[in-house]
Design brief:
Elements lengths: L13 E4 L3 E6 L2 E6 L4 E2 L2 E2 L7 H16 L7 E3 L14 E4 L3 E2 L4 E7 L1 H9 L3 E2 L2 E2 L8 E8 L2 E4 L2 E4 L2 H8 L1 H23 L2 E13 L2 E5 L8 E5 H4 L10 H8 L13 H19 L3 H9 L1
Antiparallel strand pairs: 1-2, 2-3, 3-7, 4-5, 6-7, 8-15, 9-12, 9-15, 10-11, 13-14, 15-16, 15-17
Helix pairs in contact: 1-7, 3-4
C-alpha cells in the first residue's frame, strides 16, 4: 500500500490544509481527506506512515455513527463520488460545513502526559482541579477531568474551565457536558475491547446555530489508548501516537528541520494503528480493502 503524503490535484478546490488532513469543497459540503502525514510537538515530519490516514478516517466514521445519539456530528458518509481518484477511498469522508468553536475540548480519565507534568509542578493542582497527593503516571482519576485548551501563537495552551467560561460563557458548560458524556461512552466501549481510553480531545462547531462534533473522534492521533491487560500489570503500552512521541523524546532532533523517520519506527507505528482499528471495530482494515478490490 503506497503511503499518501499529500493529496495533490483532484479537481476540487482546497478549503483548508492542516497538519494531517486536507479538506476540499464538494457540492455544498466538504471532503475531508486524511493523509499519512504524522505530526508531533506541533511539527510535521517528512516521512509518511502507511495506512495511518485510513485508520484515522475509518475509526472516526465508526465513532461518529456510534455517538450521534449523544450529540450530532458533521459526518455524512465515507462513500465518495466515482469520478474522484481511487486512492481517496477509505481515507476520505464527506462532512457538513460548520463554523468551528475555537476551544479544544480535552477529557482526561487518567493522569499522564501534560496533566502529570502540571500535577507535579503545581503541588497536585491540574488546571483548576485539586487532586489527591501521591498519584503516579497512569493513575485512574476518581472522575474524568475536562481540561480545555485554546490556540495561542499556533500552540495549544491548556486553560482552566473557569477561564473557558470567561471566554465562551454558557457555551463552555454545554461543551463540557457533551465532552464528558462522549468520553464515558468511549471509555466503557474501549474497556470491553481490551483497551483503556486514557484521554481524548474533541472539537465542536455550529451548524444552523446548533453545536455539533467536528474534525475527528477517538482516533489514535487525538486520544491515548493503552492495552488493558498491560495496564493491569503496571505498564502503559500505547496503541496510539504516543509511541512515536516517545521515540522522539529519546533522540536529539531539530524542530526546524525534522528528520526522516527510521523504517522500524514507521512499521511499528503502522502496526499499532492497524491493531487499534481491529480491536475497536472487529475488522481487519487490510483485508477489508483487499476484499473491496476483488
Amino acid at each position: 500500500m503506497k503511503a499518501i503524503y499529500t493529496v495533490g490535484e483532484i479537481g476540487l478546490k482546497l478549503f483548508k490544509k492542516g497538519k494531517v488532513r486536507e479538506t476540499f469543497f464538494l457540492d455544498g459540503n466538504l471532503l475531508m481527506v486524511a493523509t499519512d502525514r504524522i505530526s508531533a510537538f506541533d511539527v510535521v515530519f517528512p516521512t509518511p506512515i502507511p495506512y495511518k490516514g485510513m485508520v484515522l478516517n475509518m475509526i472516526s466514521a465508526f465513532w461518529f455513527r456510534k455517538t450521534k445519539k449523544i450529540v450530532e456530528n458533521h459526518f455524512l458518509t465515507t462513500e465518495i463520488p466515482e469520478n474522484l481518484p481511487g486512492f481517496l477511498r477509505y481515507r476520505s469522508m464527506v462532512v457538513k460545513k460548520t463554523k468551528p468553536i475555537e476551544l479544544e475540548c480535552v477529557v482526561r480519565g487518567y493522569l499522564t502526559g501534560s496533566a502529570l507534568k502540571e500535577y507535579k509542578n503545581n503541588d497536585g493542582k491540574v488546571w483548576g482541579y485539586e487532586l489527591e497527593k501521591g498519584l503516579e503516571d497512569g493513575a485512574k482519576l476518581d472522575e474524568p477531568l475536562f481540561t480545555p485548551a485554546i490556540k495561542r501563537m499556533d500552540k495549544d495552551v491548556s486553560i482552566s474551565f473557569a477561564e473557558a467560561k470567561k471566554i465562551f460563557g454558557d457555551v463552555a458548560e454545554e461543551l463540557k457536558e457533551y465532552s464528558l458524556k462522549l468520553y464515558k461512552l468511549g471509555h466503557e466501549y474501549a474497556l470491553k475491547k481490551g483497551l483503556i481510553l486514557a484521554d481524548t480531545k474533541f472539537e465542536f462547531g455550529y451548524l444552523d446555530g446548533k453545536i455539533i462534533v467536528i474534525d475527528e473522534m477517538f482516533t489514535p492521533d487525538s486520544s491515548r489508548y493503552w492495552l488493558k491487560n498491560e495496564y493491569e500489570k503496571g505498564n502503559l503500552e500505547s496503541m496510539d501516537k504516543q509511541f512515536f512521541r516517545n521515540y522522539l523524546l529519546g533522540i536529539e532532533w531539530d524542530r526546524k528541520n525534522p528528520p526522516e523517520i527510521p523504517k522500524e519506527i514507521v512499521e511499528k507505528t503502522t502496526e499499532r494503528y492497524l491493531k487499534l482499528y481491529e480491536m475497536i471495530t472487529g475488522k481487519n482494515l487490510q483485508k477489508e480493502i483487499e476484499n473491496k478490490r476483488r
